[in-house]
UniProtKB/TrEMBL annotation:
Pfam families: CARD (PF00619). This is CARD domain-containing protein. InterPro entries: CARD, CRADD, DEATH-like_dom_sf. Residues 1-89 form the CARD domain. PANTHER family: DEATH DOMAIN-CONTAINING PROTEIN CRADD. It comes from the Eukaryota. Gene3D superfamilies: Death Domain, Fas. CDD domains: CARD. One of its GO terms (molecular function) is death domain binding. One of its GO terms (biological process) is regulation of apoptotic process.
Length: 127
């Protein structure tokens, strides 16, 4: 996973503490992102906040598709948290543009635009 995406997950770690991992695990498992062993490691923790933090610790090692898959899972289960994260990302730094000036994460741009349209956000988005 790209360092900027890891940083974004770390930055919103506390906001994600309200996520019930049982709502997103099926999507992550069905896409092959997490294994049965990963799920067991997550579920081992009795406190929900610890569960999501464990999952967030696992995801960066899962490769470049991990962040995208998490975003897709959040889009259907916790769209408000995804929106908060993407708004924050667009306001913080040029996450979406590579050093060559081309979109580095075209799927992330599309997802952000879709969420803004869906919720009629009156914000300026910086790509």
């Amino acid at each position: 996973m790209d360092e900027r995406l890891k940083d974004l997950l770390h930055l919103y770690r506390n906001k994600f503490a309200q996520i019930d991992v049982e709502r997103i695990i099926p999507f992550l498992r069905d896409t092959g992102l997490v294994s049965a062993e990963d799920v067991e490691n997550v579920r081992r923790h009795p406190i929900p906040g610890q569960r999501i933090h464990t999952l967030l610790d696992i995801l960066p090692a899962k490769g470049s598709q991990a962040f995208q898959t998490l975003c897709l899972a959040l889009e259907t289960t916790y769209p408000h948290l995804l929106t908060i994260m993407l708004i924050g990302a667009s306001q913080r730094s040029p996450l979406y543009v590579s050093r060559q000036g081309e979109p580095e994460y075209p799927w992330l741009i599309q997802l952000t635009l879709n969420l803004f349209r869906k919720y009629n956000a009156n914000l300026t988005i910086y790509f």
